[in-house]
């Protein structure tokens, strides 16, 4: 059997690492992304600095892109999507569609790394008024401003005096069926709080949380730094309503530590939106006949011992397509999937030799 390529679907951090790993192992790889650029959400969402080390996100993604550019083993297809798959790995024929038409490509294995999408804060959480009030924005909107080197009140363009983050918007919410913690938003909000304090030192910053989930070193590198060095105010509380008063917004709710109602005027309210399964992940699961797990992400069946194995032999899933994941998780899973995919092709070759 000739060396068939691995197809990687999705060129975010996870898919780029998978692609690099496959080529490092000496196998051919076809990387397909529906977007016109590589880099996934960190590029599409204009992320500014990455947690926890504040590395410039564009530089980090460019480093990953460079590692897979101009390599004879790697074929990159942008503006392309997978629309059909016939057969079973390692004898798969995958149809890729782009502006010029459809093309069938024979592949030995597939890695799905089609990632996540940001929760739409207008969907079920109208109490926050994201689409009504200019000064209610999201973590991603803040990244865009920080990337441009500024942080202003959107309605006036002026520097804000008092801003707050509301945690768990679209996550840990049984009412809307999103019964998961998105894992990164406590860290991202804390990182942005630090950056806002640096850019606008006179601005008071509050974070309203259910409980802060700063796992691993993020606790030390972000949370305590924000609290002790940058005087960010973390308040355990529930926000029940945001209303307009004068030319500002008012956050109403309950300070659950003190057990008393709160009503605080804010210049900017930032919604810490979480992760949801992307449309591409749902579509790819259907196309390759892989079940979704109970929250709607792609199901992997190997538990902690094999994080990228799906129920379809030779088809692997990795990164945020399988559940909430930070960059470390996504990139590690991309590397693991690369190894598994190449091993799958190699074992298939040995069996037919
Ligand atoms: C506001 C915010 C800030 C964040 N900042 C950080 C941070 O500082 N540090 C950190 O560790 N994590 C951060 N994260 C998490 C980080 O974004 C994810 O861990 C990471 O993007 C997941 O990588 P991925 O490659 O799995 O998916 P994605 O980044 O979602 O990439 C998926 C790729 O698949 C492509 N795709 C989708 N559907 C298809 C399809 N049908 N066909 C072809 N291609 C398709 C997309 O175009 C995209 O390129 C942040 C998350 C949020 C919400
Ligand atoms: S990481 Fe924090 S903000 Fe995000 S869902 Fe989990 S607890 Fe809520």
How does this structure look, described?
The protein has 353 residues and is of the alpha/beta class. It has two domains: 6-115 and 278-352, FAD/NAD(P)-binding domain (3-Layer(bba) Sandwich), CATH 3.50.50.60; 119-274, FAD/NAD(P)-binding domain. It contains eight helices and 19 strands. The strands form five sheets. It has a seven-stranded mixed β-sheet with strand order 11-17-12-13-14-15-16. A five-stranded parallel β-sheet has the order 5-2-1-9-19, with helices on both faces. Strand 14 (233-245) and strand 15 form a beta hairpin. The longest helix has 26 residues, at 327-352. The protein is elongated. The structure holds flavin-adenine dinucleotide and iron/sulfur cluster. Residues 9-15, 32-35, 40-42, 45, 47, 50-51, 81-82, 113-116, 118, 139-140, 143, 184, 188, 278, 280, 283-284, 319-321, 325-328, 330 line the site of flavin-adenine dinucleotide.
Briefly say what this structure is.
The chain is an alpha/beta fold. It has helices at 13-24, 40-44, 57-66, 139-147, 185-199, 218-229, 279-287, 327-352; strands at residues 6-9, 29-32, 49-50, 55-56, 74-77, 81-88, 91-98, 101-107, 109-112, 116-118, 136-138, 162-169, 204-209, 233-245, 248-255, 260-266, 268-273, 275-277, 315-317.
